[in-house]
């Protein structure tokens, strides 16, 4: 079949939003110190690794996984500290749960709203599912502009407002009272995305169930188990029941279920790692500032810094020096900003040494 026949077929079948969108790009970190994706740089300690592997040995790979792993879900509810009566739904990463949420409201034709900049997936999924996306600009210090947000909510009547708390990529932890005002004003759902909870140690979980429109997202990715792919959506039972209809029946594979159960018995390991990362975050913050660069206080495991006129040079210089960080080429506001995830002390030292050599 000719190329033009393929194009014609695709244009006839695929939504224009899909054809116009770009695939989510993941940088190749092979051989580099990976400080681009907010992963935990530590693995399981050797002794625990053995026990973890043992816990997988009799995992029945010939059977479908438990479609509703009750014990694991009860363990996760207790781990998050969910109020009584709040239900949980599991996803193949929280990305999948965001997709389910946006899919669920796609028929409403009402916008998806978030602050700008924030986690890119909210906008990407809205666009892919044909919904308008409204991004409310953060102020010059990457703080929430509450009056602008409330005005936009009233004018646009969004189906879902996603608030990442702390915010990716700025690390800002918006005032809890702002979140409360947004939940009270929202005509639709508000989803508080606490992907970086291990580093902020703040949660909005105790608000769940007090209003009918609040849901909470968590993930195991940032605190140390990104490869496991386990996200959690918590909310009132009625919402979870409906949203669960969109979840594919066996979305959490047996190895992930076993690994998550194992992790729940050893949470102290990742807690200790998160503590080291929180200390390193403050050291990195001071060191970047000492380089003469503007850097924003962060409640997460990454830092955003401004490098006017030289972001591209720093990014490629760091890469050449063996360190991969995140650049935001193409973003209208963040073109001259860079984001670095907090690594081990040695990785952070390497990042700082290369950065200093480039300045
Ligand atoms: N929410 C936020 C705010 C994020 O920054 C990310 C990852 N960058 C995710 C959700 C997705 O995490 P995962 O799919 O690994 O659970």
Automatic annotation (TrEMBL):
A Gene Ontology BP annotation from the UniProt entry: L-histidine biosynthetic process
GO MF, one annotated term: histidinol-phosphate transaminase activity
Catalytic activity: L-histidinol phosphate + 2-oxoglutarate = 3-(imidazol-4-yl)-2-oxopropyl phosphate + L-glutamate
Keyword vocabulary terms for this entry: Amino-acid biosynthesis, Aminotransferase, Histidine biosynthesis, Pyridoxal phosphate, Transferase
Co-factor(s): pyridoxal 5'-phosphate
SUPFAM superfamilies: PLP-dependent transferases
Enzyme class: transferase
Pathway info: Amino-acid biosynthesis; L-histidine biosynthesis; L-histidine from 5-phospho-alpha-D-ribose 1-diphosphate: step 7/9
UniProt-listed NCBIfam families: hisC (TIGR01141)
Family: Belongs to the class-II pyridoxal-phosphate-dependent aminotransferase family. Histidinol-phosphate aminotransferase subfamily.
Quaternary organization: Homodimer.
UniProt name for this protein: Histidinol-phosphate aminotransferase
Gene designation: hisC
